[in-house]
Amino acid sequence: MSLLRSIATIGGFTLLSRVTGFARDILTANVLGAGVVADVFFVAFKFPNLFRRLFAEGAFSAAFVPIYAGMVERDGLREANLFAERALAVLGTVLLAFVALMELAMPWAMYGFAPGFGSVPGKIELAVEMTRITFPYLVFISVVSLQAGVLNSLGRFAAAAAAPILLNLTMIGALLALSPITETPGHALSWGVAAAGLFQLAWLSARCARAGAALRLVRPRFDDRVRLLLRRIAPVAFGAGLYQINLLVDTILASTVANGAVSFLYYADRVNQFPLGVVGVAVGTALLPLLSRRLGAGDEAGAMTSQNRALEFALLLTVPAAVALMLTAGPVVSVLFERGAFGPAERDATAAALAAFAVGLPAFVLIKALTPGFFARHDTATPVRCAAVALVANVVLSLILMGSMKHVGIALASSLSSWLNAGLLATILHRRGFLAIDARLRSRLPRLFFSCSVLGGVMALGLRGLEPFLSGPLAVRSAALALLVAGGLGAFALLAQLTGLARLSDLRSMMRGQDAPPPPPVRES
Description:
Elements: H1 3-32, H2 36-55, H3 57-75, H4 77-113, H5 123-134, H6 137-153, H7 158-178, H8 185-210, H9 224-255, H10 261-296, H11 300-337, H12 344-359, H13 361-375, H14 382-405, H15 407-431, H16 439-470, H17 474-499, H18 504-511
Helix pairs in contact: 1-7, 1-10, 2-3, 2-5, 2-6, 2-8, 3-4, 3-6, 3-9, 3-10, 4-5, 4-6, 5-8, 6-8, 7-8, 9-14, 10-11, 10-12, 10-13, 11-12, 11-13, 11-16, 11-17, 12-15, 13-15, 14-15, 16-17
């Protein structure tokens, strides 16, 4: 499967996941509202997901995929699967022990995670009860993460990308079916979370079996490769902890700015996360196993070409998206949120934060496209060091900018520190000889910036012409925004074709994988 087709597959399923997640959130808000049960469920849902980010997904994939994919190339699928089974045995044993410990310690753990619940009679007890239901999800989703790494390494991206959709659909089904028979709708959702983990596990187990990578349950064994895996997980898990600290620092600083600042940043970030999640996750997920397999086969030239195409595709999608978001932040926030208690003042404050976040959108995605260049070469420490530097820069910039720009300064600091992070990653890769911008990408960059400049002018004129409609009733605002977005998209597509930025023939070639030689076929033994 070509890089572009892999990105399109992952991005498409991620988009569907975001849509079903939005439907889940709408239904949850309708049934739970924003009271005690809602507060408790959101904590019960966040608690296992906090450890999921530290122990599974990002950290585990960054360390596991390069080792597994390299073994597929050098030693064959059978040996790679033996390593995956041993990794599964160790991961499963550690997580089962950890979950059992947390189930016993949940009353004390909850006082640390949500201390404010103790001031409301019965709230902390309800949180302990629901979190004990959801917490086994951590075991299921961690095994799912390992299975996803196996499938991605074999070039099978669809099943793993579709797994989050099962979570959303299961939670929706649980809320509708179980609410009448459970103590509260929050209990129904909690059981839905646990069930979703099982369904995702069953789904990926079946897909692994079809791919010739069914993983058996074996006794835990700490061989050299498993020890290597654990050593490489540690820096990335530390980096995930840095990310959580970064979010916490931003929230603390925003809470000191003004009433509503935390909410303005939250709503703005939710909008910004939509293109970031679809494009960034897709690029990073598709690129890591491809680079790992090429490097495992000794194909440095192919790895360099794949890195360039990932950067090209990331910039092609995110630079125009950033321009569009900066210009249309007000109408976008108005259509999505402006109703009820969310009035014009809240719209303007959120839109200003969204425009500031949009400045860093290309950088956020470039980080996803650059870090696989390190992970595929078994270097999990350097990206963490770069993230630590960016974290310090983010705090310093926030303290400087929030004095005059309030919450917008915090959003802008996040964007600027992300550009610093991306710049550090690119510079280090270049100095090590792992990144050299090829002729194709060099020729595309001026065309991209020219096309985006014209796009900005077209959308500015469109905003002026549609201004009376963008301040009307919701249906009229929505139609006007859809027309503006469609017009901007059409104008950019035409410019891309005329300037040679992205011709249809180029996209067809990339979809067929003609931009680089394919990785060698998987060997059975």
